[in-house]
Amino acid sequence: MTMKKNLAAATMLAGTMTALSFMSAGAAQAQGALVMYCGVQEEWCRAMTTAFERETGIKVSMTRKSAGEVYAQVKAEAANPRADIWWGGTGDPHMQAAEEGITDEYKSPKMGELQDWAVRQWEQSKGRTVGIYSGALGFGYNTDLAQSKKIGEPKCWADLLKPELKDEVQVADPNSSGTAYTLLATIVQIMGEDKGFEYLKALHKNVNQYTKSGAAPAKAMALGETTAGIAFMHDIVTMVVDKAPVKVVAPCEGTGYEIGSMSIIKGAKNLDNAKKFYDWALTADAQKLGAEAKSYQVPSNKNTPIPPQAPKLNDIKLINFDFAKYGSSAERKRLLSKWDNEVKNLP
Ligand code: PLP
């Protein structure tokens, strides 16, 4: 063979191989891929990803972000969506996305196995988001620090305003964090909007840092970096299970709660796989993975055992949280910008 012929043969072979590899990438895209935005703790996101891949052979590309951040990303990508499924995180940005039509309607055959509160979330969003777990908001404190600083035992939201707690309370920023938005909506519902904002302004004096993620204050409490932290009670329980000197508090005035949710992205490129994941994520077996990853929410499938460590919702004074109102696009935008203007930028 001449050198020219050799080169021509090599070029043809390379061309065929490139074409084959494009075809197989295309086939994987069509049959075997799923892009997931995940809103719970990284450990649980990873456990869900691995189990789903093992069960179905579908390759999952997962990104963990806080609830408000996922919403912002899904909104920014709406014209050419990158993700197929948004799993977890508080329900409010899922409800907002549903109202704005950037997520899709779907009725899973698993709906009949779900708790009423999970189905109600689906009905209120006109079939665009569904409840996957629930959990109450609260706060906690590091018992060693509270003792050494003579802070006593805070029991109520009002106790977090004590001057002894100056720079000793940590909470997330409600723009990025679903946990912190749940706090904002909870305080407004318990106290009324005017008194609620007075409370949040007073609380600001004691806040040492507004974190991006809602569970960060629980970790900081466990590490002794802050005396008190506001978070979902189940996120604080995770620290207690890991033997941190932390106490969990269900505030005496009552508290709000979340319905963690799941939505399919409108225009999902792997729609069939998104539906497969959705159906699977509602099964009792998939929901058991939460407790195994030390996430102690109340699962939405009636057949999933409630982890014994999960804070008992019946023992907590829960408010009648208005998910439709506080998940509505206009109300969420209004409250967040009011919080930015009146609280966040105070000295
Ligand atoms: N982690 C857990 C275990 C949760 O239940 C939730 C809320 O659904 C979050 C984190 C929310 O995270 P963030 O407040 O960072 O949006």
Give an overview of the whole structure.
The chain is of the alpha/beta class and 347 residues long. It has 2 domains: 162 residues, D-Maltodextrin-Binding Protein, domain 2 (3-Layer(aba) Sandwich), CATH 3.40.190.10; 135 residues, 3-Layer(aba) Sandwich (D-Maltodextrin-Binding Protein, domain 2), CATH 3.40.190.10. Helices cover 47% and strands 17% of the residues. The chain has 15 helices and 11 strands. Strands 1, 2, 3, 4, 5, 6, 7, 8, 9, 10 and 11 form an 11-stranded mixed β-sheet that branches. Strand 1, helix 2 and strand 2 form a beta-alpha-beta unit. Helix 3 packs parallel to helix 4 and helix 7 crosses helix 8. The protein is globular, with a radius of gyration of 23 Å. The termini are far apart. The N terminus is likely disordered. Pyridoxal-5'-phosphate (PLP) binds next to helix 7 and strand 10.
| CATH fold-level assignment of the largest domain | D-Maltodextrin-Binding Protein, domain 2
For CATH, the homologous superfamily of the largest domain is named as Periplasmic binding protein-like II
**SSE class:** alpha/beta
What is the CATH first-level class name of the largest domain? Alpha Beta
- Give the helix tally: 15
Number of strands: 11
Oligomer: single chain
- Could you state the order of secondary-structure elements as H and E? HEHEHEHEHEHEHHEHEHEEHHHEHH
Strand content: 15-25%
Bound molecules: pyridoxal-5'-phosphate
What radius of gyration results from the CA coordinates?
23 Å
Contiguous uncertain segments of 5+ residues: 1-30
What would you say the CATH architecture of the largest domain is?
A: 3-Layer(aba) Sandwich
Bulk shape: globular
Instruction: Give the fraction of residues assigned to helices.
Output: 40-55%
Could you give a short account of the major beta sheet? 11 strands, mixed
* Count of domain modules: 2
